[in-house]
Amino acid sequence: MIPENPYLLLTPGPLSTSKTVRAAMDRDWCTWDTDYKSIVQKIRESLLDLSHGGEAYTSVLMQGSGTFSVEAVLWTSLRPKSKILVLSNGAYGQRMARIATSMQAATVVVEFPEHKQADPETVEKTLQTHPDITHIGMVHSETTTGMLNNYAPVAALAARWGKVFILDAMSSFGGIPLDVKWPEIDFLISSANKCIQGVPGFGFVIAKKSTLLECKGNSRSHSLDLYDQWETMEKDPGKWRFTSPTHTVRAFLQALTELENEGGISARHARYAANHQTLVSGMEKIGIKPFLETKDQSPIITAFHEPQSTAFSFEKLYQLLKSEGFVIYPGKVSQAATFRIGHIGHVFPEDIHRLVAAVEKIKFW
């Protein structure tokens, strides 16, 4: 028999959840029932409150992983004559660019080194070179490295140049304070199983109403038509177009309640930051250095340089830590050998102290 929780998921999502979030899934729901639809509406309202969107914004839930919501935004917001500028310094910026190009949308990709922020001067020069750009897309928390991209200067440029600004805040929303109105974000995308600490099953988009209203009829995808999904949820409040992940939705409402009880996003951000600081301090004491400079590091996940030892093997580290009750991530950085440890989810500094002690005990490098 598999134990209830054999290990902590130290990943950027799916992540370790509370017993009460998991317990919230222990019943069935009818998608047409008013009780269930009222849950959906509470979630939509809560997301707007967390984003500080107010009356100018709306929220839409979308079945599938967060990537489905990224693709839904692109299918819905890009017209045949649109051109999108995608800024990338990691795998998830590259993902956005790949989705856009697979749609045969006109796409300009500006790549920055994985250890560097997007440079606003380069962005503005690109806008000058390509005046027909209509959209700008970027990732907030790039979990390839743990980079927390400073999106504000880019969002300000988008507003000044009259471009639609799309922010993939998949692994940051709910764990890092932000305001969608300042600087203005047209589409913010995130997922149930990240910083709000729900379980996988749906993503969501917080959209500026005036921008979304201009998207009617744009999508060439039936399932990923964000406008149609929103219109359905507005006309019959809480109703999804297709079968919704009811258990995940109910768990998410519980996760939102627990976020509020913790003290909101600022309190959760403080806990995640404490987890990160505890991790980096402990790992540095045993000779394992982070990949990024402190100023660029998010409180979401940290990439570490692999120890310079012929005895080191990530697979061995992974299996030994798993036996101690921790699951970590392999590296994704293209220019360096790294591994990654997440510090979000139902995880606390005392858990990180135990992890560091487990790493130190291995001592095979």
From TrEMBL:
It is an enzyme of class 2 (transferase). Pfam families: Aminotran_5 (PF00266). Keywords: Aminotransferase, Pyridoxal phosphate, Pyruvate, Transferase. Its cofactor is pyridoxal 5'-phosphate. SUPFAM superfamilies: PLP-dependent transferases. It catalyses: (2-aminoethyl)phosphonate + pyruvate = phosphonoacetaldehyde + L-alanine. The keyword Phosphoprotein does not apply. GO terms for molecular function: 2-aminoethylphosphonate-pyruvate transaminase activity. Homodimer. PANTHER family: 2-AMINOETHYLPHOSPHONATE--PYRUVATE TRANSAMINASE (PTHR42778:SF1). Belongs to the class-V pyridoxal-phosphate-dependent aminotransferase family. PhnW subfamily. This is 2-aminoethylphosphonate--pyruvate transaminase. It comes from Cyclobacterium plantarum. The gene is phnW.
